[in-house]
Amino acid sequence: MKVFSLDFIKQRRQELNMTLQEAANAMEMKNASTYLKYENGVYAFKAEQLPLLASILKCREENFFEQKISKTAI
C-alpha cells in the first residue's frame, strides 16, 4: 500500500533551502502559515496541486508516495 509522505515534502523543501513563505508564494497560497498547515497535514494537498508541488520541489509526483508494508500477526 502506498501512502502520501508529508515528511518527504518537508525534507525536500528544506534540502532546497526553501522557506515556508517561498513555498507558499510558489503554490499561490496566502501566507506561510497556510502552507505549513498543508505540510503538517492539517489540510490535505489536492491531486490537482501535486504537479505544481512537484515542479516547485524539483521532484516527480511519485516521490510523494512511499510503500507502506503492514505487519502481519503470526
From TrEMBL:
Residues 9-64 form the HTH cro/C1-type domain. Gene3D superfamilies: lambda repressor-like DNA-binding domains. Pfam families: HTH_3. SUPFAM superfamilies: lambda repressor-like DNA-binding domains. This is Helix-turn-helix transcriptional regulator. InterPro entries: Cro/C1-type_HTH (IPR001387), Lambda_DNA-bd_dom_sf (IPR010982). It comes from Lysinibacillus irui. Transmembrane segments: none annotated.
